[in-house]
Amino acid sequence: MKKKRGDITISVVVPYYNAEQTLNSCLEAIEAQTVKPSEVILVDNKSEDSSFKIVKNHLSKERKLYKICWEEKKGPSSARNRGFKESKGDVIVFTDGDCIADTRWIERISEKFEDPDVNAVAGKIMGIKGKSLFDKFHSLFTLKSPEKIVKVKEFTLVKGGFPAANLALRKDVLDAIGGFDESFQFFGEDYDLCARIYASGFQIIYLPDAIVYHKHRNNLKATWKQSFGFGTGHPKLLKKHFKRLTIIDFPKFQFLTQKLPLRLWFDFAGADKKLLLLIILSIIWQPATFLIPLYLIFLFFKICSYLQRNGLNARFTEKWQLIFLLFFKSVALTLGRIRGSIQNCVFCI
Fold this sequence. Notes:
- By secondary structure, this protein is α/β, with parallel strands linked by helices.
- The protein is built from eleven helices and 13 strands.
- Helix content is 43%, strand content 20%.
- Helix 1 packs parallel to helix 2 and helix 8 packs parallel to helix 11 (316-344).
């Protein structure tokens, strides 16, 4: 029996691990929603900081809203699975302890699920605009999303994946596909879930006005770990979901086919690959050396354009530091893909 308009119940699942820096803001944003969820399931994934003290403070204020549980198995897949299994809502909305939701986040999502034909919704993720170099970098180059509503029916590795930090599904759909694959312990589990949603005959509607703001990694080590981890996940996704798929990415051009008997993704569009090709070309033909500083100057003006478009300011030295971080992230992603390719016997670089 189809539920009437306004009868849909929403459960929000928030896994967290050592989130003392952001968890209070995350929960305050959920409490301030224009449409409150029926329940919020907090999943502590063996935190060792003061996260639980923050949770207890919110439990004392909103005891009927929150339910807390603990997941011993490390990783967001296990934590999210625990959360959705504990939930009672018709729709399960996932976010993370380092995310701050827009006040109309639940309202936008719940409106969409009033249509009984809608089974999954992905919202927009934006970086929190801070003053630090890393905040500016991740605002420009991490989790960039479309600006229009899109209905997606297919996963192609380069398209169709949405982060679980802002993803909502009907609970019966989650039950049908078995939740998150816990073999994807830390990276790629959300894109794998999206691929299985499509494979089961469902589609995902992307809503740009259902927004959460994400506090990105704020140091070199964490940025490297995240990018390297994403890289290791790509070959695993390629192996699991495709018997054959060839992707060759060039700047502003992409070749993609499933006709060739290969599982291969060669990304020439990465900043590190472009610089490496220019270095190789300059070794082979020395006059080409002048292309390297030209490429760096091109990146400098591209960074300037991105900053202006996103309403951000950066000093002259910061702009060059942003270029360094772009190469840094690209190298980490490539090395992660190489490791994942060796582990999964595919070619992804």
